[in-house]
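Intended use. Records like the one below are meant for learning the mapping from a protein sequence to its folded structure. Do not use them to infer anything beyond what is encoded.
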Amino acid sequence: MRSFLDFEKPIAEIEGKIEELRHLSGTGEMNIADEVVRLEGKVDRLLRTTYQKLTPWQKVQVARHQDRPRFKNIVADLIEDFTPLAGDRNFAEDWAIRGGLGRFRGHSVVVMGMEKGATTEERVKHNFGMAKPEGYRKARRLMELADRFGLPVLTFVDTAGAYPGVGAEERGQAEAIARSIETCLKIRVPLIASIVGEGGSGGAIALAAADHVIMYEHSVYSVISPEGCASILWRSSDHAQDAAEALRLTAQDLLKLGVIDEIVPEPVGGAHRKPVEALGKLGDAVESALRTLLPVEGGQLRAKRRDKFLAMGKHGLS
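Structure written out for the chain above:
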């Protein structure tokens, strides 16, 4: 059964009526095909008008939708012969970050990303996509492996941020994230990052300091969550909507600021409504970026990547 967001209530009501009419049609009591077509057209128009004017806070809700494509869906649809690689060779396996070897449209690649999970059991297992130090050390290990064998790296980001628990801090969370970012900027192979849901804080940047950064149309990417920002500035998470406006966290804002390089359009109503179509568009964008980056020499690739991130934030400075 489809899950609806708060601002989708009018759409939910009409789709509920459509389901009722289809049930009646199945009983043979009446022919209501014309009415169903009319209501479906109304739903399509409502979806288009609603999603054309989403506020930043509504985009946050869409980015967090439970039916949005996850890393396992991305691997299933876009990656062939996926072979998972586990462990950081130091402490443990981290289930929040999954990664391994595979083939993407004819190219051998290293692929990794955050997995939030779909069911309650999966979310607990994957720690809601919030990685611990061992996750970022595994990411670093896989990027170095890719560099050694000349394999492009594809990352898919969907996390509220790194796990803030005591154990994670004791094991060097900040250092692990910093080393992962350092490795992103050090490798001499193409690195393409896609923000597919939430891109939260350093936990996201650790996998997204890339040559080409892609964002889904309704994904978000920010230094802190709106709730976290509100709790600091207003001492209350009730101001999360105000924080979302101030953070400039939408794909459209970030493209203007030069933080990302490309926006991938989502199907009408968001990627969660038509995940297969959404993943196809994401795959096309990644393939196009990969074809552009593959011919570039490794040293030049690394230098351009470093210059790109060093240039961020210089606008407006005297």
